Structures are given as C-alpha cells and as structure tokens.
Amino acid sequence: MQKEIVAGAIFLLTFISPTPAPPIQTSQVKQEEMIVYAVQKEDTLGSIAEKQYGSGDYWTNIWNINSWIENPNIIEKDWILNIKEKSDKPEELKKELAEKFFQRQIAYAPTIQAQTEANQPQPTIITQSDTKPIATGATGPLNEVQINFLGNCESGMSAGRNSGNGYYGAFQFSPGTWRSMGTAYDRADLAPIDVQIDAVQRLITRSGIFTQFPGCSARMRAEGLL
C-alpha cells in the first residue's frame, strides 16, 4: 500500500507541475551616447558646436546638457563638458537657462555701451530700399537702421571681413551657419553685401537676434533699437 502511495505522488509531480512564472518585463530606455570634451583656449560654446555638430547654432544643446555653466559667453580652458548626439535641429534653451540668458543680456548692455561710447566708429550706411521697417527686429527682419547697427557692431560693416577666428563677413557668420543659409557662396566674406544681408535677415527670423548675436543685440537694446 505504501509503495502505491509513493508511485501516485511521483505521477502527480510529473504531470501536474506548477505553471512557470512569466518573465519579468524590464523597460528598455535608450541611453544617449555622450562624449566628453576638454575646453581649449579661446573656445566658445558656438565654436565647440561648430566642431562637434557642424553648426554654431547648436550651442544651446551644449548649454542644456551642461547647465552648471553660469554664463554661456564665458567658458574656461580645461573645463570638461558633456556632448551628446546631434539632434535634428538646435534645441530650445531650458526655461531656467533662457531666463538666465535674458537677464544677463539686460545686465550686460550698460557695460557694453559705456565701453564703446568714448570711441564709437562712424557707421557705414547701407541703403536697403526694399527692407520693411519692423518695430523690434528681435525675431523678424531688421529695418535699415538695425541692420546697419548690427553690421557695424560685428565688423564695421566690412563685407570681406575675415577675422581669422573662424567667422566671416559683415555679420561674422561661422562656416556651418553660413552653409545652412543655402547661398551660392562658400563663405560669407566671399558673398556680396546684399546676399549677406538677406542671409542674416533669414537667420534672425529663424533663430532670433538675441540667440545669434548676444553681444551686439545687447548694445542695440541699450540704444533703444530693439
């Protein structure tokens, strides 16, 4: 009798096994690939973006991921930055960084004005009969006064300016930003002034003058031109 009970128990264990537990589902989050970059002498966020992404417009991506940087216009040699994969287009600044950037522009404007009032060069006037006057120019085409001020601030309105620092033309385009404007010229300093003006108008409409020209736009604000 005892043998029959044991045999029956073995039979039950063989054919009535517990249902296996389903596999644990784990969420798989794609991790963005990062590289580290050691800041070199005379680097800016724009120049680093030019080297890493092919366009200075992507400086916002770098500041967003390295939000500990207090002032995007001042970075120091040997700082270590994280650089992530290139996005389809330049990122909007995070809200807190955008507010910080705007406040620094306002604070910086009187300093720039004081430094340049004593030795302000006489502006070169470029006539634009087809330029539509715009009230602010902050996110749209500039009027004639604004475009002349910007060009003189950047280069003395020198269409053939090659500063030797990777920026070219009257409005000091980086090569990557210039290529993104789709002109027929390899560099800004090789293009006629009217082509450069058209390109800068489209650039400001696309990205805003405070993003593209932080120093000169601060001066323009101080002068009441923006």
Please tell me about this protein's structure:
The protein has helices at residues 2-15, 45-53, 59-65, 95-117, 144-155, 175-180, 193-207, 209-212, 214-222, and strands at residues 34-38, 80-84. With 226 residues, the chain is mainly alpha-helical. Among the domains are: 34-84, Membrane-bound Lytic Murein Transglycosylase D, Chain A (Roll); 120-222, Lysozyme (Orthogonal Bundle), CATH 1.10.530. It has a two-stranded antiparallel sheet with strand order 1-2. The radius of gyration is 29 Å and the shape is globular.
Short description:
This protein is mostly helical and 226 residues long.
Shape: globular
Low-confidence stretches: 24-30, 107-137
- Class of the domain at 120-222 in CATH? Mainly Alpha
Q: Biggest β-sheet, characterized?
A: 2 strands, antiparallel
Q: What is the first-to-last residue Cα distance?
A: 102 Å
* Mean pLDDT, all residues: 75
Number of strands: 2
Helix content: 40-55%
Radius of gyration using CA atoms only: 29 Å
SSE layout and pairing:
Blueprint: H1 2-15, E1 34-38, H2 45-53, H3 59-65, E2 80-84, H4 95-117, H5 144-155, H6 175-180, H7 193-207, H8 209-212, H9 214-222
Antiparallel strand pairs: 1-2
